[in-house]
Amino acid sequence: MGEELAILSPQEVFEKKRVLKNAWEAYVSDHKVVTGVRGSVLESWKRSQSFGIQPGQRQARYAQGVDEVIEWRKESEFFATAIPILEQVYSQIEETRHILTLTEAHGRIIYLRGNHHILEKAEAMRFTLGADWSEQSAGTNAIGTSVYLKKPIQIFSYEHFAQGAHDWVCSASPVYDEHSGKLLGIVDLTAPHEYAQPHTLSMAKMIATQIQAEYLRISNDIRRCLHEEYVKARNRWPHEPMLLFDGVFQVIAENAEAQAWLRTVQPSLPDQSVYAVIRDALLTCAGSECTFELLQTGYKVTATAIVRRNERIGFLVLLHPRSRPRLGVSRGSFEGAATGPWVQITGRSPAIQTAIQRAKVVAATNVPILITGESGTGKELFARAVHEASPRRHHPFIAVNIAALPRELMASELFGYEPGAFTGAHPRGKKGKFEEAHGGTLFLDEIGDMPLDLQVYLLRVLQEKKVTRLGASHAEPVDVRIIAATHQHLAERIVRGAFRQDLFYRINVVELALPPLRERAGDIVLIANHFLAKFARQYGRPVTSFAEETLRLFTQYDWPGNVRELQNAVEHAVIFSQTDTITRKDLPSYLQVMDERAKAPHHAGAPVEHPDPWAEEERKLIAYWLEKLDGNVSEVARRLRRSRSTIYRKMKQYGIDSVRFPLID
Ligand SMILES: Nc1ncnc2c1ncn2[C@@H]1O[C@H](COP(=O)(O)OP(=O)(O)OP(=O)(O)O)[C@@H](O)[C@H]1O
Predict the structure, then answer these.
(1) pTM score above 0.90
(2) What average pLDDT does range 251-263 have in this prediction?
(3) Would you kindly state one Gene Ontology biological process term found in this protein's UniProt entry (predicted)?
(4) What is the pLDDT of residues 379-416, one digit of tens each?
(5) What residues contact residue 143 under an 8 Å CB cut-off, 6+ apart?
(6) Ligand 1 in reach of 345 Cβ (< 6 A)
(7) Is any atom of ligand 1 closer than 6 Å to the C-beta of 341?
């Protein structure tokens, strides 16, 4: 214990600092053998030097981007287990000027909570999300030294090898996976050095123990559940080759028949592992069961999802011989094919296909999804498809656009209210959207626009799975799957303090990122044809194709309103088309102007009517949307991806009357 602690009582802080300062200066100036420093610290100083750390170094050397950390966290079982415990602890130590940190196994910070002023101060030594606090990056410090020693340790002031950390004290304790003995990460408490005291290390140890126990409990529970299903299946089909996959698609059990089977079939797939082929197919398995063929092997695979508390935790895989082997690729009865709700999503671009595959995998589970993408990229379409492909499909899908709700009605709309809860309320009270969506899916569009106080309320509902109507004294249980969507960069809003980090983790277990249409040019013609067929049918018009120039214009245009804008353009064209082919003049006028722009370079020297064709084009575009959206400037700004003030400025510049809009040609 003595070796772990830097400080035995708060009274010795200043004297200790003086002694350590002398020792550090003696060591770094002429590498003297020094006294007054713990052996473990001295060893770490030597290691720091061997890693090339300079004593005068002010910051950790390496850092990962926040986005990468967020991506990493989504995949991490360890992080998901630790987060509720850390948040609970943090709420108790918020006022103590300590920063609570979790790192992954190499010492990179994946969680960081602390008082705003202290965090700002710590930023100077790059104690930030994504920063690497291993000894290789930051020299002796509690996190890095604990990673190295695989033991808890406190590091105080001048015990830090690099000067940038001399004003700090940190206490770190490792967390292990008890099954594999692997280090999962480090819990650390950091504070200005004058707050040093021995108890902090005990606290870090307690938090680490709690996370480790919870991680063990969950993984034991999951393993038990997986093995029970496996044993049942073995009793039922004793002679079939059988594999058990866990939730991260690793094989965790296989019977002797499967091992023998593998030896026979592996040679027929010389370039890849048979298990990897099965795993890839499982990744796209959306339902509770899927079957597919391993063509070259002549075997059929049946995979059954193993579900615990509504979450898919693994797969039981059975292998049956087919009557005769075939060559080629077949997805046969595989549920992952584009059937059911997924057919409505048109697009072959890799980005859309990846989003569809990910959506299929998570549809069967209950995990919250965050769909990101610009307006009109298909966020709601995806949310509905996930709902339709999920076991909740027979229950309601309720969509709420947070940005469209007036601030004062938001709470009552979402959570409902009791009779007489406020003036003007309905006398019988009202169900909120959570209650309406009970058993089904609640789609919270534009979640980034939710005010902070309601974010707290929402978080509580999500954690407790209960909702309290405004004015009610008791909470009602609700069973709702949340799919949230945003066109904003939530990580940035967190940094600016406009979005709660804990709510972000809750809703962003899986992210589906939908790219803007201009970044998937290959999909434009495909989607245009899809809408052409749809609207021709809907309006009973004999329109069957696009003229070549129309398609060229479509692929050259930027589509700020994405698929929605393309849909509107094709609908307009189908209604106004004179023949069976859509030409430029059938399109909305602002798009016809776009065509002029495309042609402009070929007409060099030709008289130009308007002094600035680009400005004219912009004027028409703004006027078009103002007219179409009944003068809703906010909505126009959103469609055109500009700020409201820019739209007002442009309206003034182009003389567009905000009350009566000029007709466009
Ligand atoms: N890949 C696609 N295939 C077919 N239709 C699509 C596709 N993507 C979007 N759409 C259609 O485009 C329109 C806009 O899509 P949706 O409402 O889902 O976008 P959104 O991202 O939720 O927009 P907003 O953020 O403005 O609410 C819808 O009519 C939808 O059906």
Answers:
(1) no
(2) 90
(3) regulation of DNA-templated transcription
(4) 999 999 999 999 898 899 999 999 888 888 888 899 99
(5) 101, 103, 107, 133, 134, 170, 172, 186, 188
(6) yes
(7) no
* Rounded Cα distance, 588 and 624, in Å: 9
More confident residue, 338 or 49: 49
The CA 561 to ligand 1 mean position distance, Å, reads 10
Give ipTM to 2 decimals: 0.98
567 lines ligand 1 (CB under 6 A): yes
Mean pLDDT across the chain: 84
Residue 40 near residue 149 (C-beta atoms within 8 A): yes
Strands 441-445 and 481-486: parallel
Q: What is the pLDDT of residues 597-617, one digit of tens each?
A: 444 333 333 333 334 445 666
The rounded distance, in Å, linking the Cα atoms of 70 and 495 is 13
**CATH no. for 10-218:** 3.30.450.40
Same CATH fold, 341-513 and 10-218?
A: no
* Domain locations in the chain as residue ranges: 10-218, 237-321, 341-513, 611-665
Residue 379 Cβ < 6 Å to ligand 1? yes
Confidence of residue 310 (pLDDT cuts 50, 70, 90): low
Query: What strand order describes the sheet that includes 183-192?
Result: 109-113, 99-104, 183-192, 168-176, 153-156
Asked if residue 134 lies in contact with residue 106, where contact means CB atoms within 8 angstroms, the answer is yes
Alpha-carbon gap, residue 288 to 280, rounded angstroms: 16
Q: At 242, list the tokens.
A: 């059988």
| Domain 341-513, CATH homologous superfamily name and number | P-loop containing nucleotide triphosphate hydrolases (3.40.50.300)
Residues of the chain with pLDDT > 70, as a percent, come to: 88
